[in-house]
Amino acid sequence: MTNFKLNKPLVIYKIERGKVGTISNSKMTDALAIQFLTINPDRISLFSDFPENWKELIGLENVNTHEEEPTKPDFIRNELKDLSIQELRDLFPTISARAKGDFINKVLNP
After folding, report:
1. Residue 65 confidence class, pLDDT cut points 50, 70, 90
2. How would DSSP label each residue in 50-92?
3. Which SS3 state, helix, strand or coil, does residue 106 take?
4. Interior/surface letters 98-110, b for 16+ CB within 10 angstroms, e for the rest
């Protein structure tokens, strides 16, 4: 189950102009919504439901008090693990990897 829901239930949005990949309520995952919002945070207005910490999730707010880089939450990694390698390739067309684990690591640690 996802923490994100679009305002318009039947609309399909392109994730990024000129690239393959779409987002809709029917294929919504937290990882997909975070990718969509990372490209343009103003898109938050397209969502009716989203977590309070959405800015933190896309890297706009650093809640970590240490000097270290903040890490992606474990639930994002788990969401990505639930996808097939083909779904990962469709969502992240600029990333190339043969193994699913390598692909996920490249997504989370560009």
Report:
1. very low
2. --TTHHHHTTSS----SSSPPPPPHHHHHHHHTS-HHHHHHH-
3. helix
4. eeeeebbeebeee
Burial class (CB in 10 A: 0-12, 13-18, 19+), 47: middle
What is the DSSP-derived secondary structure letter of residue 33?
H
The residues that bridge with 22 in the sheet, in sequence order, are 14
CA neighbor of 106 nearest in space, from 82, 62, 72, 56: 72
101, 38, 64, 47: CA torsion to nearest 10: -110
As a whole number of angstroms, the distance between CA 13 and CA 26 comes to 12
Using a cut of 0.85, tell me whether the model's pTM lies above it.
Answer: no
**What's the pLDDT tens digit per position in 46-63?**
999 999 999 999 988 765
| Side-chain-side CA neighbours of residue 30 (13 Å) | 20
Query: What is the CB neighbour count within 10 angstroms for residue 21?
Result: 17
93 three-class SS: coil
